[in-house]
Amino acid sequence: MATSVNSAFADSVSESTHSAVKFRELERQAGKKGLFRTNMTNYSIGDFLIKIKNAAMARNKNLTVSSTKSIAAIAQALKKLGYLDEVKKDKDMLELALTFKNKKPFLTDLKLVSKPGLRIYMRADEIEKKKGPSIFLISSPKGIISSRQAVKDRIGGEVIAELT
């Protein structure tokens, strides 16, 4: 059995066709003033705490962050614990001054415990068992409090971060 192939259309298939490709203009081009990127984040609390940690590691005394109710509450809790010297609210921004002792930041380490994909909750007795040099920031019905205050008030909640 013989096979015959009609190659009349093979010409158009093998031709090189170039299609026009369009690229979107970059959002922020070099030299264009006045354009800035907004900070897109899924977890503003985690972003805020990491900014504080980075500022402490870089030995920056001052830091400006965008403000929300939860971030302002955490900043006040950190001030009460002695990690921040000053918290000022200016429009929708918070101006923070980190605490330094002997030219070294008071905040040495910070670990995020609860994350958007995995929330960690502790009862007061579980917090009491975790006693040690570290302090937990806890979101409770009474607001953002330290682990010491949570044990004292016999209250639990979501563990936001661990500070050492």
Automatic annotation (TrEMBL):
It comes from the Bacteria. One of its GO terms (biological process) is translation. GO terms for cellular component: ribonucleoprotein complex; ribosome. Belongs to the universal ribosomal protein uS8 family. Keywords: Ribonucleoprotein, Ribosomal protein. SUPFAM superfamilies: Ribosomal protein S8. One of its GO terms (molecular function) is structural constituent of ribosome. Signal peptide: none annotated. This is Small ribosomal subunit protein uS8. It comes from Candidatus Woesebacteria bacterium GW2011_GWB1_45_5.
